[in-house]
Amino acid sequence: MTPTATRTGIVHLTERAPQISGAEMVASLVPPPQFTDATFESYRADPAYPSQQEAKDALMAFSGVAAPAARTGLFRRAKKGPELKPGVYLDGGFGVGKTHLLASIYHAMQVRRKYFGSFIEYTALVGALGYQNTVELFRGSDLLCIDEFELDDPGDTMVMTRLLAELVASGTRLAATSNTPPNALGEGRFAAQDFLREIHAMAVSFQTMRIDGTDYRHRALDGHAAVLTAPEYETAIADAATTGLASDDGFAALVAHLATVHPSRYIRLIDGLSLVGLRDVVPLTDQSAALRFVAFIDRVYDAQLPIRATGETLDLVFPEEMLAGGYRKKYLRAISRLVASTLD
């Protein structure tokens, strides 16, 4: 078979109108590229934060790959440990390895039907297929991994609670992570309780684990994203277009275009790209547009695409009044990812 040639050149995301079927959405429920090979062995626990190793050991047991306890005598059984709950919830800040551990669970569990997706991907699937069809789709599955469980949308949270309750009843095991930033004014200490309160009907099914630590990328949340001059930007886009497919869009135009594309299709919006280019970045003024941009950046980050931009630094696109509101956690996560993507 002849290898598929790599597409090169420049495209405009504002000209793309991607479509994605329910079946394609389900097929995409696997760990993102940077975690394709994630394992418990490759997770490097920071000895300065014992909770990281403790979580790793507990999750290995949850996945059924922990070494069996040694017998203490002839025919003597090892002491039985605590009964494992059907769900685990990882609570912690950015860059402490929660998604790595979640992907390790996915890869370690040798089961027939398992799925890995972000909270928004599962809720988008419910929107595309309908609630009952989604239940039937996942019913009987062995494992559901949910990254970045969102607590700020009561409607979506309750839909997911109902869905997970039905799946647990059919034997599905669950693993989820939170979206708590490390500098969120003490919120990290309460995120697990917030989670259990919001999914009160399911709380008994989850064992919560706090993972402390510093961002493995060693980039402070108040650090700035890289910004280019117009000539530097032109050069970066042109260079990327010689070996791959680079996008080139005005920031305001792209943000407006995102309103015409369902978030479940953002993954297709960036299909085939090797770099995302944004001209004339300005602070956002509309919260709905800001949340759509967060969802878009999540997909860009998962695809490990570098971003090149001119105008305002991308970490300043969310004004103070937005950061002080109820979606603070989402915006701080996006800032962390924007900084990382512009410095790649």
TrEMBL record:
InterPro entries: ATPase_AFG1-like, P-loop_NTPase. One of its GO terms (biological process) is cell division. The keyword Nucleotide-binding applies. The keyword Cell division applies. It comes from the Bacteria. Keywords: ATP-binding, Cell cycle, Cell division, Nucleotide-binding. PANTHER family: AFG1-LIKE ATPASE, ATPASE N2B. This is Cell division protein ZapE. The gene is zapE.
